[in-house]
């Protein structure tokens, strides 16, 4: 197999769609708490937002499979489920995580700089996108990836 190291996991390029929805739900929960407490408990709210920025960055730049949400899913939920009917390509969800990383990193930066309205807006946008994915399975970041990566006619 060209382009793979001998130790590369063949499943790293694929992801369980149920993990994606679980991850989106967990992310939406964290972002909802941030939106609720950042004004009254700013250090805690910014710490939670910073932790979500780190989770987004890890998934976007390294792997879905070793992320915090994937580890919780693998240990607590996955053993109770049947095998997934299909696996999805991991690149579109990782691109969506990159979008989440950018939104939340900008939100954290604007909160730290005291531009609260921008921080709330960016956090609320990330929360809305995660909630949409968790509740309906519709990943707008994945759709954006597919539009960008669509094969161009030659």
Automatic annotation (TrEMBL):
Signal peptide: none annotated. Keywords: Membrane, Transmembrane, Transmembrane helix. Pfam families: DUF4395. Residues 15-150 form the DUF4395 domain. The keyword Transcription regulation does not apply. The chain crosses the membrane at residues 20-41, 53-74, 95-118, 124-145. This is DUF4395 domain-containing protein. It comes from Kribbella sp. HUAS MG21.
